[in-house]
Design a protein that fits this description.
Layout: H1 3-21, H2 26-43, H3 52-73, H4 90-103, H5 108-114, E1 129-130, E2 135-136
Antiparallel strand pairs: 1-2
């Protein structure tokens, strides 16, 4: 059996187990795999091999899940890995945020008004980050 077949068999087993016990448990494994493959694609300069539709689906999924968790749980948590900009640079963040706003036909005015919704000031607050969960305390 090839390593690809082994991986596919392993993923199928994880999916089946996850569905039986917890339909959302697969998120942990999938997130780790996506993170590793994204780093590899960037490192090898092969991001063009990933379709625009796939990136849009992942971005949409991440946005909807983050909003549902923060609104539904009445709390906020750091939406990106790292303490500041060692993983996601300001340029990367602003590129993505600008295009999300543009896609929804929102501008700086709406962003400025809405950003006051959560008063936490990330720049002046020394958050304690749980490295296992990427949550802020």
């Amino acid at each position: 059996m090839s390593s690809l077949e082994n991986k596919n068999s392993e993923l199928t087993g994880i999916r089946e187990t996850s569905k039986e016990n917890d339909p959302y448990a697969i998120f942990e494994h999938v997130a780790d795999t996506l993170w590793e493959r994204t780093e590899l694609a960037i490192e090898k300069n092969e991001v063009a091999r990933i379709s625009d539709d796939t990136v849009a689906k992942l971005m949409t999924t991440a946005l909807k899940l983050y909003a549902a968790k923060t609104d539904g749980e009445g709390r906020t948590f750091r939406p990106v890995l790292g303490k500041y900009d060692e993983i996601v640079t300001p340029t990367e963040a602003l590129t993505a945020v600008t295009e999300v706003l543009r896609a929804l036909r929102l501008g700086p005015m709406e962003f400025g008004l809405w950003s006051r919704r959560r008063p936490e000031d990330y720049h002046d607050t020394d958050f304690e980050i749980n490295p296992n969960e990427n949550t802020i305390k």
